[in-house]
Automatic annotation (TrEMBL):
Belongs to the short-chain dehydrogenases/reductases (SDR) family. SUPFAM superfamilies: NAD(P)-binding Rossmann-fold domains. Pfam families: adh_short_C2. This is 3-oxoacyl-[acyl-carrier-protein] reductase. It comes from the Bacteria. Residues 6-185 form the Ketoreductase domain. It comes from Tsukamurella soli. InterPro entries: KR_dom, NAD(P)-bd_dom_sf, SDR_fam.
Length: 247
């Protein structure tokens, strides 16, 4: 009997960057399980992958529901094949401290930072029990520096993801699990719709490369980080922003 493909779970996979990461990992030979809140967008994302010959499954789950997130990962029938987790889910939020409500704060921080915590907490024991794996958490350039346009809840959640990534990486490195993050700049996805055309023009003019990233370009970095080519990289946050932010 042929050995089954390793499994990758991708959150926020109904579109945008999550769908691009799912495609990249499917192209790498992974069976992919797509997690997102909306079943219709999940089904649409899965359709194209199935047509390309990928092994695909979908689970509609709200990342604010801790029990549902845990069950989606630990209760998944193919969980013993889990080798990669890519956390792409997130919500954009613009404005200043007085523009956001407590509910706004909880929702944005909940989906991004709490959501990543929940998926990592569920996935790590499975990976450890089955020989290791790799986790990639998608943060943001704004989680590494100041931001005038994005709101404090967005910046704080993405900054927190970087802290989560480093701490978890240090704790599980000797158990065969690598954990890294990507801090993208602006990506050409539907999230750009939150900005005005004037705001987008201003941001684009500040990018040394003069353009925004495609989702596929960020997904290629996620593909690298979960691969054996990155076997000695853990606890890192890779800046992928066309030169807009450098350290």
């Amino acid at each position: 009997m042929a050995e089954k493909s390793p499994l990758a779970i991708i959150t926020g996979a109904g579109g945008g960057l999550g769908a691009a990461c799912a495609k990249a990992l499917a192209d790498d030979g992974y069976a992919v399980t797509l997690l997102d809140r909306d079943k219709a967008t999940l089904d649409a994302a899965a359709e194209g992958l199935v047509e390309s010959g990928a092994e695909v499954d979908t689970i509609a789950v709200d990342l604010l529901d801790a029990d549902a997130v845990t069950e989606a990962i630990t209760g998944y029938p193919g969980r013993s094949r889990l080798r990669a987790l890519v956390n792409c889910a997130g919500l954009i939020s613009l404005g200043g401290i007085t523009d956001i409500t407590v509910e706004d704060w909880d929702r944005v921080v909940g989906v991004k930072l709490r959501g990543d915590f929940l998926t990592c907490r569920a996935a790590v024991p499975i990976m450890v029990a089955n020989g290791g794996g790799a986790i990639v958490n998608i943060s943001s350039m704004s989680g590494r520096t100041k931001s005038v346009l994005t709101a404090p809840n967005y910046v704080a959640s993405n900054s927190g993801v970087i802290g989560l990534t480093m701490t978890l990486a240090a704790q599980v490195a000797r158990q065969g699990v690598r954990v890294n993050a990507i801090a993208p700049g602006m990506i050409d996805t539907p999230m750009l719709g939150a900005y005005s055309s004037e705001q987008l023009d201003g941001i684009r003019s500040a990018v040394p490369m003069g353009r925004f990233a495609s989702a596929a370009e960020i997904a290629a970095v996620a593909s690298f980080l979960v691969s054996d080519k990155a076997s000695y990289i853990t606890g890192e946050t890779l800046n992928v922003n066309g030169g807009m932010f450098m350290v």
